[in-house]
Design a protein that fits this description.
single chain, about 180 residues, four-stranded mixed β-sheet, elongated
């Protein structure tokens, strides 16, 4: 039986953090550049999860030796990861399709025993904190607790989370941030 795709997080010889996306056959299909800390590497994984589906985020390139490869970029044009060198453009394009198919996985191996996959307003985030305050959760999505109310979604119901409330992290938590304090001119 072939296992599911997954990310691995590891520290390189240069003491920087890296991640690889591996297909179900354990082959590396996307490699990151180095990050100064683990949280930034986990943020890179979240960025792959958000950006891997859209074909326009893949920059198809050719190395000096003629080998095709690709770079996955975020919407802001920053590179998130790159592929291996391929023997043909068709193989490179197959690699892109594999990242599109496998990049949304929430399985992360290595790096931390306490890595959790959560969503905020339907966007995935990877965190390694065991607990987070409502304000910290909003900050992950670049939202301010002064402008947004946070809710933990539980099926069809929602529980409001105040900025100072602490939430114990676990995989699959879904949060909804809604604009609060709306003032009309």
């Amino acid at each position: 039986m072939i296992s599911k795709s997954y990310y691995t997080v590891f520290t390189g010889k240069d003491s920087q953090y890296y991640f690889n996306l591996k297909a179900g056959n354990h082959e590396i299909i996307l490699q990151s550049e180095g990050y100064k800390n683990k949280q930034n590497a986990l943020g890179g994984i979240s960025s792959v999860q958000k950006n891997c589906i859209d074909d326009e985020n893949y920059i198809r390139k050719t190395a000096k030796d003629g080998s095709p490869y690709f770079v996955l970029e975020a919407k802001n044009g920053e590179p998130i990861g790159k592929s291996e060198m391929y023997s043909s453009e068709q193989m490179r394009d197959n690699g892109i399709e594999s990242v599109k198919k496998n990049g949304t996985t929430i399985v992360i191996k290595g790096g931390s025993k306490h890595t959790f996959q959560i969503t905020i307003n339907k966007s995935p985030y990877t965190v390694d904190n065991k607990e987070m305050s409502g304000a910290e959760i909003l900050a992950l999505a670049n939202l301010s607790s002064n402008q947004y109310s946070l809710f933990l979604v539980k099926g069809v119901s929602q529980e409001e989370i105040k900025a100072t409330d602490t939430v114990k992290m676990k995989n699959g938590l879904c949060f909804q941030a809604i604009i609060s304090n709306i003032q009309f001119g």
